[in-house]
Amino acid sequence: MEEKTLLTSMDKATIVRFLNEAYLAVPYAQGISNHMGSKATEDIRLMRIILEHLKKKKGVFFDSFVTPKTVGPKTARALKVKCAARDIFLDNDSDPAAIRQQMRKLAAQSRQRGIAYGIGHDRLSTIAVLKEMIPELQAEGYQFVNIDDAIA
């Protein structure tokens, strides 16, 4: 775990302090996402604290959807916080061929539903495939937008 990982055992003041520090470290952030977070996103108390803070920042919550028991989207909707959940993990396998295949799945889902949400790591292989495929997919008519613009 990272040094400033939010834990279900933390008090509200510590959670809010960590969130404020994260926003200071990345001032252009449009919101937050959970990375490992299955225990966190299943915890209504923690998610409410996070989402209430996020509402004040007018940010979005992007649920990596690492557990089907997540309360993130439901709590976000109740608090009127913009929220979306991941459709496709791009790089569970860091092999470029596997990432390309996941990108194609994401594109197919987008074509079918009108929008799809993908998430990946900042791995060199993922970044290389994105640099290669985004122009290809744009040439096919797909658009890539900021998460804040994608969520109504």
Overall description:
This protein is 51% helix and 9% strand. By secondary structure, it is mostly helical. It has helices at residues 12-25, 38-41, 44-57, 72-79, 96-113, 124-139, 147-150; strands spanning 31-33, 60-63, 83-85, 88-89, 118-119. The strands form two sheets. A three-stranded parallel β-sheet has the order 1-2-3, with helices on one face.
Quickly list its features:
single chain, 152 residues, mainly alpha, three-stranded parallel β-sheet, two-stranded parallel ribbon, 5 strands, globular
* Count of individual helical segments: 7
Question: What sequence of helices (H) and strands (E) makes up the elements?
Answer: HEHHEHEEHEHH
Distance between the termini: 33 Å
Mean pLDDT: 93
Low-confidence stretches: none
Strand residues, percent: 5-15%
> Quick one: biggest sheet?
3 strands, parallel
Overall geometry:
globular
Number of strands: 5
- Bin the helical content: 40-55%
| Radius of gyration of CA atoms, rounded to a whole number | 16 Å
Q: Output the strand order for the largest sheet.
A: 1-2-3
Helix-and-strand structural type: mainly alpha
How is the secondary structure organized here?
Blueprint lengths: L11 H14 L5 E3 L4 H4 L2 H14 L2 E4 L8 H8 L3 E3 L2 E2 L6 H18 L4 E2 L4 H16 L7 H4 L2
Parallel strand pairs: 1-2, 2-3, 4-5
Helix pairs in contact: 1-3, 3-4, 5-6
